[in-house]
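hey m, so remember when u said the tokens were messed up on ur end? i reran from scratch. heres the input so u can diff it against urs
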Amino acid sequence: MKPATAAKKLGVYLEATPAEFQEGPISRDDLNALQTDPPTWLRDLRRDGPHPRQVVAAKLRVSIGGLTRAGLTDALTTAEIEAIKAEDPDWLRREQETQAEFRKETERLKSVRPRS
């Protein structure tokens, strides 16, 4: 698979991975090995970042669209994410509420859908 696909499956920001990871295809066996026994660089990336947008959104409990509305378009480190949480800006609370309402509505729709 392409390095970008492998990075997405691993939940890491491709541009922060080592050059040898970025340069060639990643086999399923290689991906499984990285998931099973992550090397130091992968553990460090997962812990400290920079994190891809989908991970940033999950850590902040907002949608990717919410990040965009807030003007956050780049990858962020764990420290930057924690600083945003500590600051607790209005946009973050608003986007978290929106995301919570969306999840609640999704669950409600699942419960009323007829099963086929």
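this time it looks ok to me. The CA atoms of residues 47 and 78 lie 7 Å apart. if urs says something different then somethings off w ur setup not the seq
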